[in-house]
Design brief:
It is a single chain. This protein folds into 2 domains: 121 residues, no CATH class; 109 residues, no CATH class. Helix content is 59%, strand content 4%. The chain has 12 helices and 3 strands. A hairpin with a 4-residue loop joins strand 2 and strand 3.
């Protein structure tokens, strides 16, 4: 849909969301109110209290890049970090910036908004991230992505993500069309996702050395894929009463400060959720 005073980029994104069956979009004119409403719904569902700090969160929608000036003037970000943020903007990625309690929504769909609301809730409850060993950092980020996807499923239970069969089909397609080199990041992500699933079945995880070998793009692409997959299982595990709301609430509250804790939590969840039966995609 499009209102007469809707900026062209929002109108275009609404149309793209419609094509992808994400019919609902937030009111860009009052994005913060909608964002906080989603955050409060997720918190209430899990019996969590985000507190007054949630009102400090600033929300920017796609096309509004005025926050970049605020980032530079804050002196909290290196030039490298700002370059990375700009790269994410060009890749149409939504994200939450904890240092400033700032949200950028590259897409005004319910899914993107609810996912970032869930990330924000996690930060408000468990505090700032801190330097970790590469393996801990990877699995902590996977868990953060899982909670983001899980939270978005609370708001939109119809949301989908890629599964094992999807990654197998992607690999077959890229090979059959001889276009692997043109879509190498997708291909490598799919290969590593399947490798990780096989290791997980044996209660094994990727080693520190393996994770160090990933390029930054592959690091983030893979943790995103693994996180979404785990988040989907958490949601259906909750519906099947394999995991409780109290346990989910603890995941939002837990800062995972001890070395090795992110790995332990990931393995515990992976084992616990093995009996979960995912519904057929429609």
């Amino acid at each position: 849909y499009c209102r007469l005073h809707t900026p062209p980029i929002i109108a275009q994104q609404s149309y793209l969301n419609w094509l992808e069956h994400e019919d609902d979009v937030l009111d860009f004119a009052d994005a913060k109110a909608t964002f906080l409403n989603y955050l409060e719904q997720i918190a209430a569902f899990l019996n969590l209290t985000p507190g007054a700090k949630k009102d400090e969160v600033e929300v920017y929608t796609c096309g509004d890049l005025s926050f970049l000036k605020k980032l530079r003037e804050s002196n909290l970000f290196s030039n490298r970090e700002i370059v990375q943020i700009k790269k994410q903007i060009l890749q149409a990625e939504s994200y939450y910036i904890p240092k400033l309690k700032l949200v950028y929504l590259a897409n005004v769909s319910v899914n993107h908004t609810a996912e970032e609301a869930s990330h924000t809730l996690k930060h408000l409850l468990s505090g700032d991230e801190f330097p970790r060993l590469r393996q801990d950092a990877f699995y902590a980020a996977v868990l953060h992505e899982a909670l983001g996807f899980f939270g978005s499923k609370i708001i939109n239970p119809k949301r989908k993500c890629s599964r094992i069969s999807d990654y197998k089909n992607l690999i077959s397609y890229l090979r059959s069309q001889d276009i692997v080199k043109n879509r190498l990041l997708e291909y490598d992500t799919a290969i590593l996702f399947l490798e990780h699933e096989k290791k997980g079945a044996k209660n094994e995880l990727f080693s520190q050395e393996k994770i160090k070998s990933f390029s930054p793009d592959l690091f983030f692409s893979l943790l995103h894929a693994l996180g979404y997959s785990l988040g989907e299982k958490l949601f259906y595990g909750l519906l099947a009463e394999i995991i409780s709301r109290e346990e989910m609430g603890e995941l939002f509250l837990n800062p995972m400060k001890n070395q090795g804790q992110p790995l332990q939590i990931y393995l515990i969840l992976a084992r616990k959720l093995r009996p979960v039966r995912l519904p057929r995609k429609i």
